[in-house]
């Protein structure tokens, strides 16, 4: 039995003295309102109305139940109102500062269509982790190893000029083998990739192939790293989507397969699951992640 619906019908019929008019006010057919009130009477063991051709009159029992019914329906209405307000309460989400304004706007718009109102805060990986820990945000797109990732983004090397080979080997930057041996070309690691599972693996490849320590460097900002690449033969460690946005030519790394991994970190587990399930595709597009089902970059599809 729909107890709340039955009490709503009871109140509307009692106010109008008619099952037909009370049902219309409840926005249900007259037969539904009659069934609900009859079920309520059976449940309570007493009649609420005296029914006649002239209409419906409250019994004494019905008049006694009227104040409680009004309180119940008023409380239910207040709860529905609070629920709607809670849905509008923004969910603060820390996102990578590599996401473009356009992609973040699309993420925000899709979140609204799914009943989630976002308050987006851009930050580097360590900053996003700290924002969740300090409860300054409710959730963050955290950088995680590929084995723990919900979203995966392939990384490679990109330069200002078109690269002739299909794959770039870090070894080719070694002095004596590089095309411009008078200047040691460098690989720039942007702040988003300044995490152990990416940075340390690049450093190990650097040392294994005999590059100088300064030839693989972490940049303070993506802007600074891109400026270095645009003005030289240096290379930027980045995703294909970033390379396209920056006007660079991207190739995979020959010696190693590098992947950015992302998952949702949240103070409340329910927030993490809501974001993963409702916003998976929009976040994948924002990050430049590959669609795990189709194997194609989600950002390349309309």
UniProtKB/TrEMBL annotation:
Q: Transmembrane segments in this chain: where?
A: none
Residue ranges of the HTH lysR-type domain? 1-59
Please name the source species.
Streptosporangium lutulentum
Q: What's this protein's name?
A: DNA-binding transcriptional LysR family regulator
Q: Where is the signal peptide?
A: none
Any one GO molecular function term: DNA binding
Keywords (A to Z) from UniProt: DNA-binding, Transcription, Transcription regulation
| Family of this protein | Belongs to the LysR transcriptional regulatory family.
A family per Pfam: HTH_1
């Amino acid at each position: 039995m729909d107890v709340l619906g039955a009490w709503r019908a009871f109140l509307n019929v009692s106010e109008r003295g008619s099952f037909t008019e009370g049902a219309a006010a409840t926005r249900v057919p007259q037969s539904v309102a009659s069934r609900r009130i009859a079920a309520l009477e059976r449940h309570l063991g007493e009649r609420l109305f005296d029914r006649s051709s002239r209409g419906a009159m409250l019994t004494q029992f019905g008049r006694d139940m009227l104040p409680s019914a009004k309180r119940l329906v008023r409380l239910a209405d207040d709860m529905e109102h609070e629920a709607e307000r809670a849905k509008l309460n923004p969910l603060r989400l820390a996102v990578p500062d590599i996401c473009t304004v356009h992609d973040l706007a699309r993420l925000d718009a899709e979140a609204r269509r799914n009943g989630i109102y976002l308050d987006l805060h851009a930050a580097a990986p360590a900053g996003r982790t700290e924002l969740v820990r300090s409860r300054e945000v409710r959730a963050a797109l955290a950088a995680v190893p590929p084995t723990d990732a919900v979203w995966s983004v392939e990384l490679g090397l990109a330069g200002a000029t078109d690269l002739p080979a299909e794959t770039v080997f870090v070894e080719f930057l070694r002095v004596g083998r590089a095309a411009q041996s008078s200047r040691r070309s460098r690989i720039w690691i942007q702040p988003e990739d300044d995490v152990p599972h990416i940075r340390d693996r690049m450093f190990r490849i650097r040392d294994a192939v005999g590059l100088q320590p300064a030839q693989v460097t972490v940049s303070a900002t993506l802007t600074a790293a891109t400026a270095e690449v645009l003005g030289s033969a240096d290379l930027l460690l980045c995703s294909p989507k970033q390379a396209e946005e920056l006007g660079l030519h991207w190739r995979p790394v020959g010696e190693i397969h590098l992947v950015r991994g992302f998952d949702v970190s949240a103070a409340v587990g329910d927030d993490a699951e809501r974001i993963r399930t409702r916003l998976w595709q929009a976040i994948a597009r924002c990050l430049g992640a590959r669609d795990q089902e189709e194997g194609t970059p989600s950002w390349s599809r309309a």
